What does this fold into?
Amino acid sequence: MSLLLRSSTSHLRRHPWQLVFALLGIALGVAVTIAVDLAVGSARRAFEISTSAVAGRATHQITGASTGLDEQLYRTLRVDAGITAIAPVVEGYVRRDRIALQIIGVDPFAEAPFRSYAAGQGPTSGLAPLLVRPGAVITSEQTAKAIGVAVGDSFAVALAGGTRTLLLVGTIRPADELSARALENLLIADISAAQETLGMIGRISRIDVAIPDGPAGTALLERIKARLPPDATINDTRARTLQVTQLTRAFSLNLTALSLLTLMFGMFLIYNSMTFSIVQRRGIFGILRTLGVTRREIFRVVLTEAAVVGLVGTLLGIFIGVLFGTQLVRLVTRTINDLYFVVAVRGLYLSPITIIKGVVLGIGATIIAALLPAYEATTAPPRNALTRSTLESRVREMLPRLTVLGIALLLFGGLMLIAFPRLLSVSFAGIFILVLGASLLVPGVTFVLMGALRPLLGRTTGMIGRMAAGGVAATLSRTGPAIAALAVSIAVGLAVGVMITSFRNTVVEWLGNTLAADIYISAPGFASNRSDVTMDPRVIAEVQNTPGIAAISTYRNVIVQAPGGAPVRVLALHFAPQHGKTFRFKEGRPENVWAAYRDSGQVIVTEPFAYRHDVHVGSAVTLLTPAGAHAFKIGGVLFDYSSEQGIVFIDLAQYRKWWNDGGVTSLAAFVGAGANPDTVIQSIRARTSATQALLIRPNTALRKASLEVFDRTFAITAVLRVLAIVVAFIGVLSALMALQLERAREIGVLRATGMTPAQVRMLVVMQTGLMGLAAGLLAMPIGAGLAALMVFVVNRRSFGWTLHMELPPGELGQALVLAIAAALLAGAYPAYRMSRTPPAAALRDE
Amino acid sequence: MSGQQPLIQLTGVGKSYHEGDAEHIVLHGIDLDIRRGEFVALLGPSGSGKSTLLNVIGGIDAPTTGTVAIDDIDITALSERDRTLFRRSHIGFVFQFFNLLPTLTVEENILLPLELNGMKTGASARAHELLDAVGLGARADSYPDRLSGGEQQRIAIARALAHDPPLLLADEPTGNLDSETGAHVLKLLQDLTRATQKTVLIVTHSAEVIRVSDRVLRLRDGSIVEDTAP
It folds into this structure.
């Protein structure tokens, strides 16, 4: 190692806490990014594996309009058309204890070319036992163990409020870890057994198709298409998987943005540590320059030092990230299950790309953060008299330029937001630039603020107050970044808080308008807001006849397809007379919308749907029906916060007419005047429990459950928000400690000239308090602006919904108090240490 | 003793600073030749421009007007980088406050100029030779903060001479030492430079330094007002 580098490492060894702060900054920044990536990636990977287990080697899938396909279609294709590379599949979910299990029903005779577990010596070797006994299933050894069932055991599973009995007739020992994960929580049954268990007699979920490459494949595809009924489509399986994983795009992008923000605070931390380390060594660099070390050589040494620190911090960050990711994956999976699709994540999937991203971000961020300090190091004049005042006077000279650059970045960021209204990633980049611009304004504003406070403090607290305010302004090279980091982190905390409060209040108001009925009844499903399990017609009749029920709205919740194969959630609704009146429309006059909905077959789309598909009142939504594609005219656009993909509302009678599906997913019941909803619920339970176990909830319980899902969704955001603030707080602590310890000599002079330890403490505390005040005052407008961007830009562009922003004065006040408290807390140790340092020790040269 | 060919040639060297609208002149068009092997003392009251003149000659500060040639090379015409590389190979510095690198050991401090000049073989032997010459061979592995002021200055002299530069510039090298240690350091400086025919320019207030110098320059208000042999 060259002596120049040795000098660097020796310096770091002598200032271990400084090194620790720099490493912490990088490590935490990288850790959060890795953890988010790991959690979202693992959930996606789990989904992909389970999809591929179910899809097997199928290249295409034939799917139906809403309730699957008629099983006759399979027979037509196989027998009449002689197409053999096809296999029928029935799939659904059941639950055993708390574990959701996926059942796939297959035809053992058609399976071999599709799924590897069916491979063997004869066509039915692996799956042959399924044909022997009714209700027979096989599963992997691990899954059997997890659900506590052995071969030969009968076991009960819950489905749609009832129970079914299955029989485990065999287990599969997966060949490798991937197969084991693919088969996790999967029960394989014969198709007829699955149809019976899942209540899909005569229907199949889809038909898997293996189409070879080349002209033969194209010809086969055309032959199949020619035989398909109007409501069936054939799609590429990869495209379908991609479509589903894209559901989580906005969700994961939002998490990534928050994790990047933590990395940005980490950069502040690195910048602080590096700047301090450089300032501390200006004397050394001055000597080196005198001895003939060139600027480039010094620049190289500082950057090498940063790269090494960056590498170590990054490796540490990856390790912490994996640990943290294992915790975060639970939160992420819960949200994905709540909002998107059913997935069980057991194994963590750390992709090489995640690691590369962590390394590039960690080392890249460190080097970027170190560029300015490295440049600063090269400007150390080669002479003996090296003073901090020259650096500070240069910073003060830079202030106007810095401020202009800040304003320019604000304008540029704003322009990005305006110019690309639909690109979410550009919006995030724009917001990052805005935050950077705002942080560049911090030193200038602080300088002005301290100038204004100095005489005021002088009058009220005397010399110490003047010195405190003067000190903050005089050491802007250190105080500026620290105040900026604190201000931005408090601002982000404030903004996220305001966004969540605004969102929550909007949802509360929306639930109030939407959940107008007294009692909600559905068959228990597997995802909180998308149950499409149907209710037994007998229980519907029972509910209708329950005394005390005045009116009922009937729901059918299904996924139908658009002509391109994209899934569209449709909510077919028959409204009770008193229902729907409180719904709020973004487009369309309610009375016209409802009339057209009932009488002319027009549909209502939710705001996210309109945003995603860029449709309005008067446009049309084309959906696949058994009679072929049909364009439904849009009569209104409804405010709705239940699905970011959007929903199409259609009158139940219209739906039944077009799709020939009499299923009912849920009921909303209005009780008559004088009837007690709780008593009515008890009556319904008594009348239906023997037929089907139902989820019967009064209005308040459903509202509470909806808000619980909401709060769970934002649990991750809250965790990341706290982490970002912690990283920023460490940054401020490091900056304040560096600043105060750097001033040891100055404090030594003050002590030598008669300042008491208490006065020194007071000086340090006042100075850090002033920094907190500056950060808090700046955090309020930055936070309010950021909150507005999160509410009106990020949410709109991520999910397509309009939120009503609320900025409670209490939250603003809290931000100010938090900033001052954080700064005071960070200043406590330096104040204690400085007041106890003997003047002689402080005055001694290094 | 002294060669006739000048090693240092200053022609009309002026240096001024601007403070707001006011111009503060530190050096007034100085013309000066210093021959090879000369041991020159530079005197003057505080603020007379001694250190500035030393910095300008050492190439760590640029004059506002005039030229500085060392070994027939006009260093004022060099780029910042070339001036640094020139300083690396041609000049040794000794400061009042020693300016050893606290992050390197005593031996490493001496090795540094050798490493910078690309010397690999024999560097360690040279460092030890110098350590022995300044009487601190046993302290090779110590860090500077473990040494007394006099010891630190002896190491600084060893470092300044390590790469065998023709010119040694010293800014009050005994100013921070007691008289006995100062005399010892001065003797060492004299012995090591006279033996190798170095040109030495010392900024000083010390009568002892003046006594041993070949030539004394006196600076006042940025001009040389006296140029004599003691």
